[in-house]
Each structure stands twice: as C-alpha cells, then as structure tokens.
C-alpha cells in the first residue's frame, strides 16, 4: 500500500504473503520487521521508497523509489537481495510503477493503464493486460499457486472488477460489486473469496471467486468513510473473519462464520423466505463488531488479520474464534490487538502491544 501524502513519514507498508514479516518505506529508506516479535530485521537508508514487497521470508525484495533522487526513479523496479545487498535485476517502464505483487512463480507490475505479468525465475514477459485508468494502482492478488488470481478495476465510474488467472493467463470473470468506483479489495489467501469496498465505504461485499457470485454483504456504517484496507483471516476454506480499516479511526470486524450460521437458520423462516440472504445480511448487524478509536482518525492505516485460532473452551468461557489483528499506521506506529468472538457471537478485544516503527533499532542483519 503506497501513500502519496507528504504529511506521513511512512510512504508504503506491506506484509509478506504469510504475514510473518512486514516492510515499510520512508523518505530515508526501507525497513523490515518480524511480525511476531516486532524486531527490526533489516534496514537500508539510501533514499525514499514507495514500494517495498517481500517474497515470503526470503531475501528477495521488489523495491521502487519515490523519484526524489535520480537513482530511485518511480519507473524502475529493482529486484534486491538483502543478504548481499545487491541488485539482482532492474526493470524499467515508461510510466510510474503503482503496485507490485509476487508469488513463487509470478511477478506482477501495475502501471496506470497496463499490467505486466512476468515469470519470476526468468523474468520473461508472459502477458500484458490493458486496463482502465488505475491512478491508485488498486489491485488484489492471491499468492496461492492453485488459485492464483489478480483482481483489477474494470471501470472508473462504477464498482466492477476483473479477475485474471495469472498462472493460466486468461480472464476468469467480471464482477459487478458496487455502484460507486472501487476503493479497496482483497483476495483470500486461498483465492476462493474476494472482498470489496467502494468509495462510499458503507457496504463491504464478499464474492465467491469460482462462481463469481455474491456470498455476503455487510454494512460498515451509515455515513461514507474511506476504506484504507481489507483483510481476510488466514483460513483454508471460508475465512472466519474479515477486517476493514477506515478513515474514522475504527476497525470493523465481520464474522463470516456467524453470518453463514445465521443464514442457514433464517432460510426456513418467513423473513428468510421472502428477503434474499444478501439483503438480510446488510440489515442485520449481529455479525459486525467495531474496535472504536483503535487508531487516530484520518491517519491512513493498513490492518491485517495475521492469526486465527478456533478455540473450543477456556477456563472462563467458550470461545468460537480468537485472532490477532496487526495494524500499521502511516504516522509511524504498529498496533496489535487480540480479538475474541465467543460461541454467542459476543466480541471483546485488547491491545497487546504497540511501538514506534521509526525509532526501532536494528539488532542484526536480516537473513533469508
């Protein structure tokens, strides 16, 4: 996630594919942290960076400069090895690079109106995709090789998206998700589901990728708000929960598991028989939970559900779901919350740790 605001010290932030590490780019350079311990693993202070993407926990980074120095052009992608601190390969483009995504076989480069798809090992161009103007580089990517999809906006005036299978190089489907243009989207790690939010930010929708059908609709709020990020919980089938960070400073958590359970119970009721499931989901807030004032209002943030544990029993209560939510704020802080949803869909949360990302001290070099 890149940030164009000059008021925040962090220009970009990203977690790696299994959320074990995360990277930030600043005007001084970039830094890599261990998500579990918060330890600063690697830093390089050579200038401003707007893209820093990791390949799992390997030593390979894809980095793009902010253009404040001639050597760090926003049109140049550098594949960088943190072990020996050398550039492995540079790729140059005619316009600024807006986003980069990777998995173990593919490298994807997002420009304003074009996408380049590379074989990661040989850096051979496999395909190019012409797109509608995508000024923010909005995209979603599932690194799973079995269901490796790339989602891109299909329109600048409505909230439709295109899903590409990047392993087989073909268009999978188009989904009409919202009336207003898209502001955020994320694919589940297994590539089965995609969540979207429009520029209105009032409704979050979840679609099943394979059938291109709408599975859930959740109301975030009544008043519009900018959605900064969406994140599914890391689960092999249906993700248990979905989190959204917004300009309001609150984090919204949606219980997909409870929504499914409620749907199965209401399908035989009179209301369920005359109102479509997606509509009843929007009207009923029972599976919507809010962390009020979790972060400063108006500050851009990136929230990720890193862990989800299904727990059957503790000493004090029955617990349906326990998860870890990590948040990077672009004013330079890391926050981590523990979330608990019990068998009655009752929600509780606590702040586990927070620290300043810019004052952390390097202990030792990052290794692959």
UniProtKB/TrEMBL annotation:
It comes from Quillaja saponaria. GO terms for cellular component: phagophore assembly site membrane. The chain crosses the membrane at residues 45-66. It is found in: Preautophagosomal structure membrane. Keywords: Membrane, Repeat, Transmembrane, Transmembrane helix, WD repeat. Its main location: membrane. It comes from the Eukaryota. It is a peripheral membrane protein. Belongs to the WD repeat PROPPIN family. SMART domains: WD40. Pfam families: PROPPIN. InterPro entries: PROPPIN, WD40/YVTN_repeat-like_dom_sf, WD40_repeat_dom_sf, WD40_rpt. This is Autophagy-related protein like.
């Amino acid at each position: 996630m890149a940030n164009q605001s000059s008021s925040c010290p962090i220009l970009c932030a990203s977690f790696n594919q299994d959320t074990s590490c995360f990277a930030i780019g600043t005007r001084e350079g970039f830094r890599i942290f261990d998500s579990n311990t918060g330890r600063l693993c690697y830093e390089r202070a050579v200038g401003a960076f707007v893209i820093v993407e990791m390949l799992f926990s390997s030593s390979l980074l894809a980095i793009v400069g902010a253009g404040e120095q001639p050597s760090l052009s926003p049109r140049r992608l550098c594949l960088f090895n943190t072990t020996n601190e050398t550039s492995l390969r540079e790729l140059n483009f005619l316009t600024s690079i807006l986003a980069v995504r990777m998995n173990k076989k593919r490298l994807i480069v997002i420009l304003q109106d074009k996408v380049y798809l590379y074989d990661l090992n040989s850096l051979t161009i496999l395909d190019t995709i012409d797109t509608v103007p995508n000024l923010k580089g909005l995209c979603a990517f599932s690194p799973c090789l079995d269901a490796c999809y790339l989602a891109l906006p299909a329109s600048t005036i409505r909230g439709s998206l295109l899903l590409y299978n990047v392993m087989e190089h073909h268009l999978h489907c188009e989904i009409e998700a919202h009336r207003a243009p898209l502001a955020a989207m994320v694919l589940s790690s297994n590539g089965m589901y995609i969540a979207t939010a429009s520029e209105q930010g009032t409704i979050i929708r979840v679609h099943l990728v394979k059938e291109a059908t709408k599975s859930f609709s959740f109301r975030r709020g009544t008043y519009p708000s900018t959605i900064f990020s969406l994140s599914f919980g890391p689960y092999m089938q249906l993700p248990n929960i979905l989190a959204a960070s917004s300009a309001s400073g609150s984090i919204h958590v949606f219980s997909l598991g409870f929504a499914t359970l409620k749907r199965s119970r209401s399908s035989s009721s009179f209301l369920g028989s005359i109102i479509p499931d997606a509509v009843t989901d929007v009207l009923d807030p029972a599976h919507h939970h809010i962390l009020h004032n979790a972060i400063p209002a108006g500050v851009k943030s990136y929230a990720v559900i890193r862990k989800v544990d299904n727990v059957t029993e503790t000493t004090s209560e029955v617990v349906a779901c326990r998860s870890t939510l990590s948040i990077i704020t672009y004013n330079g802080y890391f926050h981590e919350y523990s979330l608990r949803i019990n068998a009655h869909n009752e929600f509780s949360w606590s702040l586990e740790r927070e620290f300043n990302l810019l004052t952390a001290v390097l202990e030792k070099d990052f290794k692959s």
